[in-house]
Amino acid sequence: MHYGIIATWEMAFEGIKKGFELIEKNFSSEQALEEAIMDVEDNPEFSSVGFGGLPNEFCEVELDAAFMNGDTLSIGGIAGIKNFSNPVSIARSLMKNRFNNFLVAEGAEKYADLNGFKRKNMLTENAMKQWNLRREKVMKEGLSPYDGHDTVGMVALDFKKTICCATSTSGLFMKLKGRVGDSPFFGSGLYADSDIGGATATGLGEDIMKGSISYEIVRNMEIGMSPQESAEKAVFKLHKKLSDKRGKAGDISVVCMNKDGDFGAATNIDDFSFVVATDKQPLKVFKLNRFF
């Protein structure tokens, strides 16, 4: 029986360790993913996810998250939510509904309140300090305000052969109020089908959404490509299309896993990191550079 879990970025190491231990104890991939991503969300040292996430133009922390179950294709997503500690848990809870699977801003906050989720001020002193420094540089030096868009995205396969995926992010640093990137959008930021595999993406959401890259990776695996081939083909194709049509492609990095526990990753940047643990691959951080 093959099983495993994979995530974008080295910051997910401890979360992946916890998630993998849960899978080995026969917990579901849903449970493992929620616990793994909560570990990242709760750590104030990570400036692009959860508590300590970098704020928007008005120094407000707006969070996005999503969850997908590959057995049923059930989905749950939230965007632009403020002052709740674990957006991934709220997203997961929305999967149980037949309707109203994706909620935003005040609607998402009202739902979270009514369903007993914990409120918390997600703006840390360090994040506020970084915001003030960046604002000063923007005003004095004319720098672009946008920086930091490292979504934590994960894919997990459990003993029952269920594949799930989930994402969580605070989005672009100093983004416009209400801006949402690819992370909570199914097909772009994440996609799972237990008959095939799952994928998730991180990078510049505005460009990733132009290619529905997570869905494409899963479909590549469906027609017989390995996870690695699927990831590389999808990243190269979207990078080239954006470059040809727009003159430039933003950051695009992906990880994926198929129903047999094989995994893949690809990127168009240098020094992309990801974390993986499977029954065949001990827990490890990999560093990856662009392959073209």
Report what the structure shows.
- Strand 5 and strand 6 (163-169) form a beta hairpin.
- The protein has a single domain, classed as Glutamine Phosphoribosylpyrophosphate, subunit 1, domain 1.
- The protein has helices at residues 13-24, 29-41, 87-93, 105-114, 125-141, 205-208, 213-222, 227-246; strands at residues 4-8, 63-69, 74-81, 102-104, 152-157, 163-169, 190-193, 197-203, 252-258, 263-267, 272-278, 284-288.
- The model has no long low-confidence stretch (mean pLDDT 95).
- The protein is built from eight helices and twelve strands.
- The protein has an eight-stranded mixed β-sheet with strand order 4-3-2-6-5-1-11-12, with helices on one face.
- The chain has 292 residues and is an alpha+beta fold.
- This is N4-(Beta-N-acetylglucosaminyl)-L-asparaginase.
- One of its GO terms (cellular component) is cytoplasm.
- GO terms for molecular function: hydrolase activity, acting on carbon-nitrogen (but not peptide) bonds, in linear amides.
